[in-house]
Automatic annotation (TrEMBL), chain A:
Pfam family, one: Pyr_redox_2
Protein name stated in the entry: NAD(P)-dependent oxidoreductase
Membrane-spanning parts: none
Gene3D superfamilies: Alpha-helical ferredoxin, FAD/NAD(P)-binding domain
SUPFAM superfamilies from the UniProt entry: alpha-helical ferredoxin, Nucleotide-binding domain
TrEMBL record, chain B:
UniProt organism field: Rhodophyticola porphyridii
Protein name: dihydrouracil dehydrogenase (NAD(+))
UniProtKB keywords: Iron, Iron-sulfur, Metal-binding, Oxidoreductase
Matching InterPro entries: 4Fe4S_Fe-S-bd (IPR017896), 4Fe4S_Fe_S_CS (IPR017900), Aldolase_TIM (IPR013785), Dihydroorotate_DH_cat (IPR005720)
Source species taxonomy: Bacteria, Pseudomonadati, Pseudomonadota, Alphaproteobacteria, Rhodobacterales
Coiled coil regions in record: none
GO cellular component, one term: cytoplasm
GO molecular function: dihydropyrimidine dehydrogenase (NAD+) activity; iron-sulfur cluster binding; metal ion binding
Presence of keyword Endoplasmic reticulum: no
Function: Involved in pyrimidine base degradation. Catalyzes physiologically the reduction of uracil to 5,6-dihydrouracil (DHU) by using NADH as a specific cosubstrate. It also catalyzes the reverse reaction and the reduction of thymine to 5,6-dihydrothymine (DHT).
Subunit and partners: Heterotetramer of 2 PreA and 2 PreT subunits.
Record-listed E.C. numbers: 1.3.1.1
Matches recorded under Pfam families: DHO_dh, Fer4_21
Length: 444, 433
């Protein structure tokens, strides 16, 4: 092996082969049986528990934790899956520090919440390891529903519809289902191909056909779907990315963070994946953190996140920021890129400090240069294209209540729809709720 | 520094912490380790006649756990010593000679015939032991042979055997009582009537710890079958404390020395037994759970507390709480309290609300913002909310001053003591004069 973290340019194999496995191992080791009991014992079984309210899918957390504590993690898993069929993935990727665990009374009391996420993983892993699919389908209704997008929103919707006895066809533009579970989530949060395993497990309900490589707008139109199916659910996520709008954005070495992560997630051999020596990530969300951390884990010498506002405004939680810092990522706050430097290939980023004036951000005029052979843009995603007839709100498909769009017979949920945070768990909740609404509409 | 030394029936020990007759005191090796660790005395594992008994060769113990596998209750189906009498006697003698300042009591269980006791008593006396404890307690194995709790459940037998022993030895006689009876005062009175110098209690409580739901066998399971065992450890402390108190305040046995046993796990437990009238305490499960070193915490804790309270010696504590143990009918019905929630320490878990709303008196309100407040008009002061609140001292009971209105009853709190015996609702009330 000839490359090291100090090799200039964007090259593969910067680390010893065994380092990749260690770097991309499970972020949190799963709890063993005893650890789970100890963690479960800390739950107070609160009345009308605030953690439930804080979970977008409203899992009955005190109940499932009590089921773990009494030695029935399988029953706990059923409680979880009843509300959230992707409870396994959510247990791994939810920013619990801003959701259930933030609301846990023990977080408020002592700064140490009950480990809800890890307990959820313990329960769901136990049931899934047994290869059991806990639900069966209701009698066939004779109705069929098209779901566009096999991400968390689409899958949750499809599963709930199938449970109610409808026939579901999911279309996804990508070669694999799973959406960002498969292509976006950081590798160390979902090791051992969990996204794929979960998808297979979910499909065991039956009644769902997944057609990959089929894109709405290319292989079909909304009208054709409406004609063929009794209802349509749109869960296409955000397929587009925002432009940087800084000089030199077209230089070689500047790429989208989501594309970079997607390549990483699909790479069979991480040591074959090229990464820069000096990486600059632009943005402040989970994507920025994940891109930065994974660049570092791939062996980049320096990784810097440029975020235009202050720490408190950063969409990535403090926990995520600390995770990045612990892996050696430097976060520069209150700075924005003004130019990408280099002659053909990128050699650096010129940034300018910012200050907030009311709602708008102003450059202070003071600039600095960061060396970079790779620049990853993580400045937000956008709808990839909007089928005709749908109204938008803030760049997303406008929906009311349980995901109803302005067009009758068409529902939407997840990242592509208005409202809610862009999180896996929110997508699941929206997909599930839309399914219930569709079910009501179809069977009256 | 408080003086922890005790003089119980003339038997001196450097501290009140004795090891109860059980596996920790089964042989010289263990007892020497215990004395090195600082225990004040031991009651040697119960001796019987030869041929010695045999134990099961599978598991003897079953357990009940709290959070983090903290052992709360232990159950055993062990019998008395399963070593030859001669070996035990030789070891007792050696240990007593090497550790003259520690209490050495020998627990005994032989058949209910005077001749059997006459045979064994001189042998024990010869070891130089300080006293004997008559094991009328074990609820399993031995009771089927007419010994242990089979004797302890019949006051007449207790009195008879105690008398035989007093007649046949100069050693002080302690009668160890079984809790497997309905009223502990009867066996205690019998022991006293037989001339016993003291009682010790409690021995273990008949129990089945759990049932294996795969094999449908009680635990501990011996080849698919289980039998009841004896329950001990922290879980039995409240039962033991009550029985001790019953004896301490019974006019017929008041003043009879007591060695308190049952769930003593910390210095605090020991202090409570002492306060209820025990001159020493005996420990088994705590030592079996944590090893002999626990006695260090017991000694330092008791000593610190005594210093803080200004108690110079053990004698100053013994029995201090006995006058405050009374019968329900004498409790002051004019003592009125209300639950109070300290909003600053409340963590809004809602347990008080669920408990009161579902199972008590609907006396706690819950607002949209999860503020929990006591409704005085409904609060009967049952204390359930205090007991279920996970935050210590978050909910407290506040006494209503005489003269204030109890909004639940609509009555002004009376200043004077009044109890059930004079209450108008009591059909048998004696008119207050
Ligand atoms: C890098 C990254 C990291 C993230 N990390 C986390 C995290 O740790 N925790 C968390 O909770 N959330 C995280 N998120 C957010 C989370 O992944 C999304 O909120 C969630 O996946 C949204 O689900 P969805 O079903 O709406 O969309 P997606 O998961 O995006 O799925 C949409 C699917 O639709 C398909 N599709 C798109 N257009 C078409 C079309 N025209 N025709 C057919 N199919 C189409 C896509 O191929 C895709 O499979 C992360 C996001 C990113 C980008
Ligand atoms: C395994 C075991 C064996 C016991 N054997 C005897 C015994 O031989 N003689 C006896 O008087 N008590 C025996 N006991 C009862 C203890 O001396 C003691 O009374 C009881 O355990 C309660 O105390 P604790 O809660 O501190 O354990 C035994 C207890 C256990 C756990
Ligand atoms: S808030 Fe915390 S303690 Fe209360 S039920 Fe939820 S997890 Fe348990
Ligand atoms: S405690 Fe010791 S004797 Fe008992 S089962 Fe375990 S190893 Fe064997
Ligand atoms: S039980 Fe205690 S902490 Fe919980 S809501 Fe009630 S008063 Fe507050």
């Amino acid at each position: 092996m000839t490359n090291s973290p100090f090799t200039p340019g964007i090259v593969p194999g910067r680390l010893q082969p065994e380092a990749y496995e260690a770097n991309f191992a499970d972020l949190h080791e799963p709890l063993d049986g005893h650890e789970a009991l100890v963690a479960a014992d800390r739950c107070y079984f609160c009345h009308d528990a605030p953690c439930i309210t804080a979970c977008p899918t409203e899992i009955d957390i005190p109940l499932f934790i009590r089921q773990i504590a009494t030695g029935t993690p399988e029953a706990a898993a059923r409680t979880i899956f009843h509300q959230n069929i992707l409870g396994g993935m959510c247990a791994r990727v939810c920013p619990t520090e801003t959701l259930c665990e933030e609301a846990c009374v023990r977080e408020i009391a002592e700064g140490k919440p009950v480990l809800i996420g890890q307990l959820q993983r313990y329960a769901t892993d136990t049931l899934m390891a047994a290869g059991v699919h806990p639900f069966t389908r209701a009698a066939p209704t004779g109705k069929s529903v098209a779901v566009v997008g096999a991400g968390p929103a689409g899958l949750a919707c499809a599963h709930r519809l199938a449970m109610h006895g409808h026939e579901v066809t999911i279309y996804d533009a990508r070669p694999k289902g799973g959406g960002l579970n498969e292509y976006g989530i950081a590798a160390y949060k979902t090791v051992e191909n969990f996204a794929e395993a979960e998808l297979d497990w979910l499909m065991k309900i039956g009644g769902i056909t997944l057609e990959t490589g089929k894109a709405l707008g290319v292989d079909m139109t909304l009208d054709s779907l409406k004609a063929e199916f009794d209802a349509v659910f749109l869960g296409m996520g955000l397929a587009g990315v925002n432009a940087l709008r800084a000089d030199g954005e077209d230089k070689a070495g500047v790429m989208d963070a989501v594309g970079f992560i997607s390549d990483l997630r699909q790479a069979g051999d991480l040591s074959a994946l090229p990464v820069g020596r000096n990486v600059v990530v632009i943005g402040g969300g989970m994507t920025a953190i994940d891109a930065a951390v994974q660049s570092k884990l791939l062996g980049a010498e320096t990784v810097t996140i440029l975020y235009r506002r202050g720490r408190d405004a950063m969409p990535a939680s403090r926990y995520e920021q600390d995770l990045a810092a612990s892996k050696g990522v430097r976060i520069v706050f209150n700075a924005m890129p003004v130019a990408v430097l280099g002659n053909g290939a990128v050699t650096g980023v010129r940034a300018e400090y910012t200050r907030a004036e009311g709602k708008s951000l102003m450059g202070t005029g003071e600039t600095f240069d960061l060396p970079a052979d790779q620049v990853l843009k993580a400045i937000g995603q956008t709808l990839g294209g909007t089928p005709d007839g749908l109204t938008l709100s803030d760049g997303k498909i406008a929906v009311t209540d349980a995901g109803r769009t302005g067009v009758s017979g068409v529902w939407a949920g997840g990242d592509c729809a208005s409202g809610g945070e862009d999180l896996t768990v929110t997508a699941v909740a929206e997909g599930r709720d839309a399914a219930e609404d569709i079910h009501k509409a179809l069977v009256g | 520094m408080a003086d922890l030394s005790t003089n119980f029936l003339g038997i001196k020990s450097p501290n009140p912490f004795w090891l109860a007759s059980a596996p920790p005191t089964d042989k010289e090796y263990n007892v020497v380790r215990a004395f090195k660790a600082g225990w004040g005395g031991v009651v040697w594992k119960t001796l019987g006649e030869d041929p010695h008994v045999v134990n099961v060769n599978g598991p003897r113990y079953g357990a009940i756990y709290g959070a983090d596998r903290r052992l709360l209750g232990l159950n055993n189906i062990e019998l008395i010593t399963d070593r030859p009498l001669e070996v035990n006697l030789r070891e007792i003698k050696a240990v007593k000679r090497a550790w003259p300042d520690r209490a050495m009591i020998v627990s005994l269980m032989v058949p209910c015939e005077e001749a059997a006791w006459k045979r064994i008593l001189p042998l024990v006396e010869d070891t130089g032991a300080d006293g004997i404890e008559l094991n009328f307690g074990c609820p399993h194995g031995m009771s089927e042979r007419g010994m242990g709790s089979a004797v302890g459940q019949v006051p007449e037998y207790i009195e008879m055997v105690a008398r035989w022993c007093k007649a046949n030895t100069r050693m002080p006689v302690i009668v160890k009582l079984t809790p497997n009876i309905t009223d502990i005062r009867y066996p205690a009175r019998a022991a006293k009537a037989g001339g016993a110098d003291a009682v010790s209690l409690i021995n273990t409580i008949s129990s089945i710890t759990s049932v294996n739901l795969d094999t449908m066998s009680p635990e501990p399971s011996i080849d698919g079958k289980g039998s009841h065992g004896g329950y001990c450890g922290p879980a039995v402390k409240p039962i033991a404390l009550n029985m001790v108190a019953e004896i301490a305040r019974d006019p017929e046995t008041a003043g009879l020395p007591i060695s308190g046993i049952g769930g003593v796990t910390t210095w605090r437990d020991a202090a409570e037994f002492l306060a209820l009238g025990c001159g020493t305490v005996q420990v088994c499960t705590a030592a079996m759970t944590y090893g002999f070193k626990v006695v260090e915490e017991m000694k330092s804790g008791l000593s610190q507390w005594m210093d803080e309270k200004g108690h110079g010696s053990i004698d100053e504590i013994v029995g201090r709480a006995v006058p405050n143990v009374t019968d329900w009918q004498y409790l002051n019905l004019n003592y009125v309290t209300k639950a109070r929630i300290d909003q600053d320490s409340c963590i809004k878990c809602g347990r008080c609300y669920a408990a009161c709303e579902d199972t008590s008196h609907q006396a706690i309100s819950m607002s949209e913002e999860r503020v929990f407040e006591v409704i005085d008009e409904e609060c009967v002061a049952c204390n359930l909310c205090v007991n279920v609140c996970p935050v210590e001292n978050c909910i407290t009971m506040e006494e209503l001053e005489p003269g204030t209105m109890d909004t639940r009853t609509g009555k002004v709190v009376e200043p004077d003591y009044a109890n059930w015996t004079t209450h108008p609702n009591n059909p048998g009330a004696c008119a207050a004069e």
